[in-house]
Structure formats: structure tokens, C-alpha cells
């Protein structure tokens, strides 16, 4: 897939949302993990955006206030932000972004 979608090699995931002990959570925050950070990050500029950030949700879950704040801040900084309720929607968004089909007006 990396040959078809250059930049995919910079796709990374956050540990937010994973159950941690208090000690692990403290170490993660001390290492720079931010509250509300989205699940998937693609630090590749395309279509006038600086990068892509995706928050994955399941079922009837909604984005938290902190996740919405984080998304708003990234949008202010020129990032494309998506909230997806299924992995296929996230995959489609990533492919559209890397293909240049998501353009900033």
C-alpha cells in the first residue's frame, strides 16, 4: 500500500483509549501524551493541509469534549480532522487524503 499511497509510512497511532494503570498513565503523560489526542495521526501535508488526524469511535460513543477541543486546535493549525465510527471509513479518509482528493478551500 505504501507504493500506492506515498506518505503512508508516517501513519502512527496514539495510546489514548488503552486501559493503563495509574503508573502507566503518569509515565505516558510525562512522555508527552496529550489528553484528547486522536487515535490516528498522519504527519504528511496534502491538499493544502499540514496533516490528518482521526478519532475512532465505536457504537454510540461520541467524541469527548477534550477530543473535540484537540480537533478544533488541529483545524486551526491547518490540519484535516475526521471522526470515524468504523475502520473502513478511516481507511477511506486516509486514502482520499493521500490521493489529494481532500483539498482545503
Please characterize this protein's 3D structure.
This protein has a single domain (8-98), classed as 3-Layer(aba) Sandwich (Trna Endonuclease, Chain: A, domain 1). The mean pLDDT is 91. It has helices spanning 22-30, 65-76, 87-98; strands at residues 11-13, 40-42, 52-56, 80-84. Helix content is 31%, strand content 15%. It contains three helices and four strands; from the N terminus they run βαββαβα. With 105 residues, the protein is an alpha+beta fold. Strands 1-2-3-4 form a four-stranded mixed β-sheet, sandwiched between helices.
Summarize the structure.
The protein has 105 residues and is of the alpha+beta class. Helices cover 31% and strands 15% of the residues. Strands 1-2-3-4 form a four-stranded mixed beta sheet, with helices on both faces.
Amino acid at each position: 500500500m505504501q507504493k500506492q499511497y506515498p506518505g503512508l509510512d508516517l501513519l502512527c497511532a496514539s495510546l489514548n483509549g488503552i486501559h493503563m494503570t495509574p503508573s502507566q498513565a503518569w509515565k505516558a503523560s510525562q512522555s508527552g501524551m496529550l489528553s484528547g489526542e486522536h487515535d490516528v495521526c498522519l504527519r504528511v501535508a496534502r491538499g493544502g493541509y499540514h496533516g490528518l488526524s482521526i478519532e475512532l469511535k465505536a457504537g454510540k460513543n461520541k467524541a469527548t469534549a477534550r477530543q473535540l477541543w484537540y480537533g478544533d486546535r488541529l483545524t486551526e493549525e491547518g490540519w484535516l480532522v475526521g471522526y470515524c465510527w468504523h475502520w473502513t471509513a478511516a481507511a477511506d479518509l486516509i486514502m482520499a487524503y493521500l490521493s489529494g482528493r481532500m483539498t482545503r478551500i
